[in-house]
Amino acid sequence: MPDQSSSAKNPLSLPNVKRFIAFRILFNARFYYPIFTILFLDFGLTLEQFAILNTVWAVTIVCLEVPSGALADTLGRRNLVVLAAFIMVAEMLLIAFAPIGNTSIVFYLFLANRILSGAAEAAASGADEALAYDSLKENGIEDQWGKVLERQMRLQSVAFVLAMSLGAMLYDFEKLNAVIQFLGFDFSISKSLAMRLPIIGTLLLGFGAVYTTLGMKETSENEPVGNSWKTIRQSFASTLEAGSWILKTPLALVVICAGMLFDHIVRMVLTLNSEFYRQIELPEFSFGFIGAGLAMFGTIMPKLGKAMADHRSKTFNFLALTASVAIGLWLMSQFVPYWSALPMVLVYSGIFLNGFFVSHYLNQITDSKHRATVLSFKGLSFNLAYGAIGYIYANSIARLRQTDAIAELPEDAVEGALFQTAFSWGPYYFLILAAITFAFAAFRLKTAEQT
Question: Which structural domain range is residue 69 located in?
Fold first, then answer.
């Protein structure tokens, strides 16, 4: 029987719901995000190694996404969320004390970190949300799920702003020591320790995530049942069925292809943004404030996306988004000190509007039977595209490194020249793919109309 007490009628009073919100904050608001690229590079890795590691991360998620959903049904959603928290601790421990500059060891430690990070993402994906939603359903108040999401998104946004601002400040040892001296303390932080502080901070969040998830309870409707391998096979079969439906539904295929176009290029830029900021001579402590500002800017994007989806055609929205991202990429690729950070707004808006458009259009044309698996297939496709651009970027950097122009540069100028050269190809790469996508969409939709 559902609990009819007054406390149970408030969704935010349910233990699983409170722990769901806390887990989302602890798991996602990571201190190293604003200095993600330069963290890898400062530990001694090259740009191509960094790109390969992110490809590994994306491929890991793709490979484990479907099995993790099946395991949630057989091992239990609560157990899978607990596993994700423990994996988060393990991935942070691997790099928290990695030897800076020892490239051979550092690469394999970061490789293991990326694999574990992808596994944690796959394990947590949807299981925590399903656990919280089913807790509402068990109490007969599932209609208040929107209230839970609103609170979770608001608190997570605040946590992101704090984590990004503090993480970048901790990484900038000069600014950190200036603050320490200003406060009157008689000690200083070395650069090597400052580099580890965002990782150690995230490790502490991981311990908090473990504590939080251990207190979660499996709902009575979803106790672990069934055979894991059988459920995994059924999940793969459902995903393949969704893929087949997408291929046979022209508009769904076009929407996902267009979504992949924008998502993979913008995510790659966001992944590289800390090295970009360094190339345009911004101080490291500012990286977090820029990221926080862009995140706050994203709060107005859903309203803009809804207005465009309601009042403009799909073609107009595609072309408008293409122009925004292309212009933003070109202006960024000029590497004007300080000022080239401003066009990030044009590129960053792409990730928000793209997400809104894809969700809006897919939900319009997808029936309830296929909706969950179609959205899952969309996620797999996007991560595959992100992994592919990581590989392309790594291969491009490796080839550039062998050119005479790069070989003639002083050693301390090589990485910067490689980054700027490869980044300058971005607008042209994007426009070529955008033209191919537009032509494919026009052909596929016209063919569908004729048949």
Answer: 14-226
